[in-house]
Specification:
single chain; alpha/beta; Aminopeptidase; Alpha-Beta Plaits; eight-stranded mixed beta sheet; four-stranded antiparallel beta sheet
């Protein structure tokens, strides 16, 4: 049997490569790539993992990279996923590693996710004789358009060696040095509505229906530091303002013979979608010539309560009792296609705290001024390496 992998060994191995991981994060940040176009990023990842001695497969589900690490003795298989793509939005960050691609930026933290994933693989590879079982690292393309996880699954990423559990981290607006666990919660799914209207009142009805869809929104992204602080504080409240919410948006397209309304909604809990569909049908029934469709919704990402609580226990022991937030509500409001992995295998996602108010960093993804305290990279690697080793040994 291998020697038990201790936190001190993980910390030493992480400290040795942490400057390299921060350079990798900055290199990826400087050269962001949109969903489905992660050619440069995946090549960087594959090169690092190959050099660390992992068995690497590229081109999985597009530009996905899969790497396998076998420990020093037999044991279970656990998977870890990191996403690599950027978004088609500008950033206001103007440091020396700001985006060199106009209109494209890593304002969701996937550059951090990738650096943490590479660091985690390198640390566990350096200590492989002291772990049991196998870790499968999934570096996923195309998360932002919710197609990458499905593509990797369609390519059979879980067919040959089904992992017992799967995990991921996501940058979150929590203080650096902390983690958020989400037992039974996670990220909302996304539902869609398409409405065709004809006749002389089509455009007026379209405007009215679009306003009604937008009106389903119950909570909006904070616009001031005070609102933001109040929202974050409420994440741990079981009955807080985000325990039940809707975020919605719509668009009207005028046509020669009428109009079309497209809308999307993110809601929690999932039961809210059925209620909204009934309300939309009632609104459409009041129009003279209208047809409504509800395309297949994208599922919510719901973390395993058991595995989330196991992570909380481990992280409190490794980082301290105050280093873990138990998230009872949902923020950000974005969908997350890690949901599809969780439909196949039990697992959980954790918020990696990247905020540092003293530096003016709130850590809220999908904001033009999004930035991170880069100390989070080392925190993420150390904590996740220890946690995965602990799960393999359990």
């Amino acid at each position: 049997m291998p020697t038990v992998l201790d936190d001190a060994s993980i910390a030493t191995a992480t400290a040795r490569i942490e400057p390299e991981l921060i350079r990798l994060r900055r290199e990826i940040h400087r050269h962001p790539e949109l969903a489905g176009h992660e050619l440069r990023t995946s090549a960087l990842v594959a090169a690092q993992l190959t050099a660390a001695g992992l068995a690497v497969t590229t081109g999985v589900g597009g530009h996905g990279v899969v790497a396998m690490l076998d420990g020093g003795s037999p044991g279970p298989t656990i998977a870890y996923r990191a996403d690599m793509d950027a978004v088609a939005d500008p950033e206001t960050f103007d440091g020396d590693f700001a985006s060199a691609v106009p209109g494209v930026a890593h304002i969701c933290g996937h550059d951090v996710h990738t650096a943490v994933g590479v660091g985690l693989a390198r640390v566990l590879a350096a200590l492989r004789d002291r772990i049991c079982g196998r870790v499968v690292f999934l570096f996923q393309p195309a998360e932002e358009d919710l197609t990458g996880a499905a593509a990797m699954l369609a390519d059979g990423v879980f067919d040959r060696d089904v992992p017992r559990e799967v995990y991921a981290v996501h940058c979150g607006p929590l203080p650096v040095g902390t983690f958020g666990v989400m037992p039974g919660t996670g990220h909302p799914g996304q539902a869609y509505v398409e409405i065709d209207l004809a006749g002389p009142r089509a455009r007026a009805d379209a405007a009215r229906l679009a306003a009604a869809i937008d009106g389903f929104t119950t909570v909006r992204r904070p616009t001031s530091p005070e609102e933001f602080a109040q929202l974050i504080a409420g994440l741990q409240e079981p009955d807080g303002p985000l325990a039940r919410f809707v975020v919605a948006d719509s668009r009207v397209t005028e046509r020669p013979d009428g109009a079309h309304v497209s809308g999307w909604l993110r809601a929690w809990p999932e039961s809210r979608y059925a209620e909204i569909r009934d309300e939309v049908r009632a609104l459409v029934d009041g129009c003279a010539d209208a047809r409504v469709e509800f395309p297949e919704p994208f599922p919510a990402m719901v973390c395993s309560p058991e595995l989330s609580n196991a992570a909380a226990d481990y992280l409190r022991g490794a980082l301290g009792p105050d280093a873990v937030w138990v998230i009872r509500a949902l923020f950000p409001f974005n969908g997350e296609d890690f949901a599809l992995f969780l439909q196949r295998v039990p697992g959980a996602m954790f918020y990696l705290g990247v905020a540092n108010p003293e530096l003016g960093i709130d850590g809220a993804p999908h904001s033009p001024d999004f930035s991170v305290d880069e100390g989070a990279v080392g925190v993420g690697v150390r904590a996740m390496a220890g946690f995965l080793a602990d799960r393999l040994a359990s």
